[in-house]
Each structure stands twice: as C-alpha cells, then as structure tokens.
C-alpha cells in the first residue's frame, strides 16, 4: 500500500509516492508553468491543477491508502461564496504592503502588541497586512471568503473548507497562545472568523471527494490530511520535532527552526513563533541566500561563470573582504524592514570579483548568524544543528558556515523532508507509527569547524554588525 504526498511550494509542484510496506519512495517535481505569474503572485487554480496532475501521474496503478498535503505559510487570496478565486494568490514574497507596514511599525506599541499576540511581525509577508492593503485598494472584505493556496488545495480535493492551525499561525490572524483567530484583529479588518474557514489540526483527516478522486484517479473516501506548512513538515521529516534539535535550511532564502513546548516570543520583536503538528516552532527567516548568489552570477558576472567556478574564486580570496548586507529582497529577521536594500561596504581599489563574491557568501551567513544568536539567547544552545538546502552543493561554503557558527553541523541527508513529513502525518493517522516525536533521521555527514579561523570570522562579523547598525533606519 502507498501514501501520496502533494506539495504546492512557492515555485514548483511536488509529489511523493511512499511505499508503506518497505519505506521506499518516488518523487517528482515540476516548476510551475503558469499562465499569469508575476513576482509574489500566482493563480490558485493553475497551481492546484499542476500539483494534482503530478500526483495523478505518480499514483497511477498504485493502491493509495491516504493523501497528505503540504503548502507554504503566508499566502492569501479572496474567493467568492462559490469558492471561485476573485484575486490572485499573494505569496510571502509579495511586497505590496511594505509601505503600509512601515507606517504601522512606527507605532511601536501597536507593533509590539501585535507581535506578542500572534508571534508575527508587522511585515508585508503576512496575510493580515495583505488584507489591509486589499481593503485600502477598495475591496469590501466582508463579501469574500479568505483562503491561502494550501487551504484551497484541501477544498478542491475534499470539498471541505478548513484550514490547519499550522497554516493559520502564519497568517498573522491567529492568537498563537490560545490557537484561535484573534477577535481584535478580525475587527480591525472588519471580517468574521466564518470568512476564514474552520480551524482543524493535522489529526482531522477528511475523505477524498468524488471530484477530488476524479482529478487524482483514485477511489473516493481515501483520508486526506489537510495542508500543513512545508516549514513545519520539514521539522517532522527531519526528525526534529523534539527539543534540542535545530533545523537550518540555506536555500533560496534561509530558515532556522527549533521545536518548543510553548510559545516563545521575546520582548523585542525579532524571531517568529508558529504552530507545528502538536507543538510550536521558534524560528527566524532571511530573504537573501542562494537568490543573492544567483544575482551575483547573472548580473555581476553576466552569467559567464559556473557555480563551481564561483566557488573556486571564493576559495582563492584571502585577507580582508568587503562587507555585504544581503538584503536584495528586503530584510526579514532580525530587523524586519521590508524596504531595506543590499550593498557592499569597505570596498577598496584592489578588490576583485573574487573578493566581492566571498564577501557576499560571508554576508549571507552573518545575517543567519545574527538570527541564530537571538534564537540561542531565548531558547538556549541547541544540542544538534541539521543543515540542508542549496548550501550542501558547495563544500567550501558549507565549511565556512560551520567555521562562522563555531559548531559542528550535520548535513541532513533526508531529501524532500517536507514531503516525508506529510507522509509521516498520514502514517500516524493510519496507525503505522504511534508518535511523530519519535521519528528520527539517520545521521548525515558531520562538518566540523576548522580550528584557528573562528577569531578572524568574529572580527569580520563585528564589521558586518557595524555596517548593519549604521544603515538601520529609525
């Protein structure tokens, strides 16, 4: 028997076919081929159909006993009463509400109170502020049903309009302490909780509808696990749904997460706090990682070098490199300035592209280390750090990361951890495992800090912080 996991990520559809008898799996992914697609915006039905098509192809001829859904945090759109989308889906990367959020952050009491209730910042990534923007643009929010992509996918497969508490915790509308929509925030938008769908947990599976079954080529009635965030599922699939294990993802963007038994929200807004299956996550995220590398390769090097060549360039750089603030796509943690820009500092006539590139790699990691310091201060030093993402393709950058953090790191060899996390929820539902917290992944390769280089990186980090603070607004 098999479990089918489907994921609509930011840029691609993914599907996993998991053999529950022997633990083997097959995975397919496909970058979206959307009819209408701009930065931070896409079409909900297009994304759903591409994801469902991929799942149908993978599941053809197999006995499927459950379907589990994965999505992203922070997406939102308006639908009519018939559940037909009336706007595009606005993703986490949509920055239209940046100016609105800047004004709100100037009211420090408002920003702090909002943060303490929701675990979210007054920042454009959150649906709450995207909805405020839509209202300013003339939309009467009272006449719509409000969904994200994951909630829409769940509806299209089951006919049930529900939203997992995990997905809801990334909307900026949920009170992170009592796990219900916050009445004051709903009143601020002029909407009712009934417009947001019924809140459920990952344990609230529902049957695959006849329409959903036809789309997937499966029998109706199969249990469907509602969409859970890929970030939370990554924690499950990596075997990190227990305290003391930090997951550290360095991909297009960056994320650091720790499982906690209670909401962890520091006094000063900095990190975020969302819900994971059965627990909470204390985390931080950055907007600029491998996307900054792509920018340097394509724009500065005019696409004339390969990633391997860039790595060799960076390995050759020595001495004092320029400081790079990696905010090409704005700043998330720790400062949450949507409109902040990137830049090189302390550039000298003798510096070359090689020096600039190494400075860029260092700057990305320094921003992540900033976030790590905050998380460490409020949660304690983790027992283990499991690192994943595009950084694993660069041994030089991976070693630099261990040297800067001054900690041993485990290269997480679990591929497609979020899809495996979704499968794990279905396995628990089917009684194949008794607890998600007991899932553990086999050890990957260990990256140990080089002795004798930590002091030099601390000096560079101090220069980075100096540039960071001198360019911080307000």
Q: What share of the residues does DSSP label as strand, in percent?
A: 15-25%
Report on the biggest sheet.
7 strands, mixed
- The CATH topology of the largest domain: Nucleotidyltransferase, domain 5
Q: Based on CA inertia axes, which overall geometry fits?
A: globular
How far is the first residue's CA from the last residue's CA?
Answer: 58 Å
Identify low-pLDDT runs. none
Integer count of domains: 2
Overall mean pLDDT stands at: 93
Tell me the number of strands: 23
Helix fraction bin: 25-40%
Number of helices: 15
**CATH H-level homologous superfamily name of the largest domain:** ATPase, nucleotide binding domain
Using the coordinates above, name the CATH class of the largest domain.
Alpha Beta
Structural class: alpha+beta
Order the strands across the largest sheet as they lie in space.
Answer: 17-18-16-15-21-22-23
Question: Any guess at the CATH architecture of the largest domain?
Answer: 2-Layer Sandwich
Walk me through the topology.
Blueprint: E1 2-8, E2 12-19, E3 25-31, E4 41-42, H1 44-59, E5 64-71, E6 77-79, E7 89-90, H2 98-106, H3 108-118, H4 127-136, E8 145-147, H5 149-158, E9 162-164, H6 165-168, E10 174-175, E11 180-181, H7 183-189, E12 198-200, E13 206-207, H8 210-216, E14 223-229, H9 230-237, E15 245-250, E16 254-260, E17 272-276, E18 279-286, H10 290-300, H11 307-316, E19 323-325, E20 343-345, H12 353-379, E21 384-388, H13 395-405, E22 409-411, H14 417-429, E23 446-447, H15 454-470
Parallel strand pairs: 1-5, 5-14, 9-12, 15-21, 21-22
Antiparallel strand pairs: 1-2, 2-3, 4-7, 6-8, 10-11, 13-14, 15-16, 16-18, 17-18, 19-20, 22-23
